[in-house]
Design goal:
The chain is of the alpha+beta class. The chain has 5 helices and 24 strands. The strands form 6 sheets. Strands 1-8-7-3-4 form a 5-stranded mixed beta sheet. A 5-stranded mixed beta sheet has the order 9-15-14-11-12. The longest helix is centred in the C-terminal third of the chain and has 28 residues. It binds 2-acetamido-2-deoxy-beta-D-glucopyranose (NAG) (9 copies). Keywords: Disulfide bond, Glycoprotein, Immunoglobulin domain, Membrane, Repeat, Signal, Transmembrane, Transmembrane helix.
């Protein structure tokens, strides 16, 4: 096969594939009675630019081409504008299958429209737009976008409601908390010829805990010995695979290569409940220089502002063990007492009967000197 033939075959296969796809991929819309519906015929290529698609109603046995000019009561609320078919107020009768095409030779796009009664719970279930925010962060709810054809339909704002509450909300949280997890509805209002038409969407908001550095603490000072090996763990709770933690030393990145005297390596531990990341800063041999720097563990996240903790190293102060200190104090005290006693006795020795006491003091002083040498 020549290259040209191969290309031709490829093209044929591609055409067949897209042909199959177009008939399978129907866009399905779920709306409530009374709501406005916009079906937009997608562009196939720039050739279709200014073209108006032909809309077909497949809801009846006989397939109908929808046209604008119909004056039947049911179709009063149906407009064709540019690439869009607009049903101003949906009724149960509008439920069904529709398609659009830019001409006989063009691809056909399919739509399915399901209309629910006002009370139907199923509508909310089919229409959930999931959204995630993280505690203590700001959060903006987003109402799904609608492409309104460029006619005299004008937007009249968006209204938010929390499920089970009648008072409207603005869809913005300065600092969100877990109790704000709920189902919200947003209503886009439009004005057309003096009438208001609504499009309502459901957004289910899940508020998850933010990623955070659990340890070390801010400005913590680690006591170290010169020449020793020290590992400082930065433990981070992460809520996303895209969150990462790393170490900086005086503001520049610490190496991850363990042939360097100072490096870090990290591990992730994930279980069903949470994911923890540990970035271990390793000093193979603490030097004087290491004590002069500050070390920062920084948490970077794809969805929240970064946070960090800076620590320092200080040299361990070498004080004596407590028992040794007590011993020395005791010895000094005894020496002072002994000398004091000796002075008194030597004064008394001039008198004959005082000499016995001097001997006793001498004995206790020699006993003390043995305990001193033992220390
Ligand atoms: C349908 O009617 C609207 C206004 O009545 C008009 O602006 C629009 O061009 C018409 N569309 C078609 C395809 O005739
Ligand atoms: C499609 O046909 C059904 C059944 O005749 C009708 O009730 C409905 O209004 C039609 N839809 C549109 C958009 O004209
Ligand atoms: C719409 O099309 C689906 C299959 O694509 C079919 O199951 C359904 O019965 C159709 N609905 C109507 C009202 O024609
Ligand atoms: C499309 O096909 C119909 C019949 O299937 C025909 O009447 C019509 O002229 C064709 N239109 C174009 C643009 O080819
Ligand atoms: C849009 O509004 C203008 C004036 O407000 C009017 O002249 C025009 O006919 C309207 N167009 C349609 C399609 O309703
Ligand atoms: C449109 O939605 C608003 C706000 O939810 C509501 O007050 C109004 O009654 C609705 N209008 C229609 C026509 O459904
Ligand atoms: C530091 O973290 C590593 C990896 O999780 C762990 O094996 C080690 O025991 C930790 N060391 C300290 C001092 O917590
Ligand atoms: C850490 O060191 C850098 C560079 O010496 C300095 O800019 C920064 O302010 C220090 N940070 C802290 C918290 O001491
Ligand atoms: C980090 O490096 C140290 C020193 O090479 C090693 O003992 C430790 O096992 C490493 N930890 C991980 C999680 O790779």
């Amino acid at each position: 096969m020549t290259t040209q033939q191969t290309l031709l075959v490829l093209l044929l296969v591609l055409t067949l594939l897209t042909g199959v796809m177009s008939s399978q991929e129907a866009q399905v819309l779920h709306v409530r009675v009374g709501e406005m519906v916009v079906l937009e015929c997608p562009y196939l290529s720039h050739k279709d630019g200014g073209a108006t698609p032909l809309w077909t109603n497949h809801s009846t046995q006989d397939v109908n081409v929808i046209n604008n000019m119909s004056t039947s009561a049911e179709q009063m609320d149906v407009l064709i504008h540019g690439r869009s078919l607009v049903i101003l107020r949906a009724t149960i009768n509008h439920q069904g299958n529709y398609s659009c095409t830019y001409g006989n030779a063009s691809r056909r796009f399919c739509f399915g429209l399901t209309v629910y009664t006002t009370q139907s719970r199923e509508h909310g279930e089919k229409n959930q737009n999931p959204s995630t925010c993280y505690t203590q962060q700001s959060c903006t709810l987003r109402c799904p976008a609608v492409n309104i054809p460029p006619v005299n339909i004008t937007s009249n704002g968006i209204m938010w409601h929390k499920e089970g509450e009648s008072s409207p909300q603005n869809g913005y949280f300065e600092s969100i908390s877990e109790k704000d997890s709920s189902v919200y509805t947003c209503t886009r209002s439009y004005l057309y010829r003096g009438q208001t038409y609504n499009m309502t969407f459901t957004v289910s908001l899940d508020v998850k805990p933010s990623s955070e550095i659990l340890s070390p603490h801010k400005n913590e000072a680690f006591r170290v010995d010169l020449g020793s090996t020290v590992v400082i763990n930065c433990t981070v709770f992460v809520n996303s695979d895209f969150d990462d933690a790393f170490w900086l030393s005086d503001g520049s990145f610490v190496e991850t290569d363990n042939s360097f005297p100072v490096f870090y390596n990290s591990t992730r531990v994930k279980n069903s409940k949470e994911e923890k990341l540990t970035a271990s800063l390793v000093f193979t041999k603490i030097s004087e220089e290491d004590l002069l720097k500050n070390y920062t563990c920084k948490l970077e996240s794809s969805h929240q502002s970064s946070s960090f903790v800076t620590i320092t190293l200080t040299r361990k102060a070498h004080h004596f063990p407590l028992s040794l200190t007590l011993c020395i104090v005791a010895i000094v005290a005894v020496i002072v007492l002994t000398i004091g006693g000796a002075v008194i006795l030597s004064r008394g020795c001039s008198r004959s009967k005082g000499c016995v006491r001097l001997n006793r003091a001498k004995r206790s002083s020699s006993h003390l000197s043995t305990s001193w040498s033992r220390v």
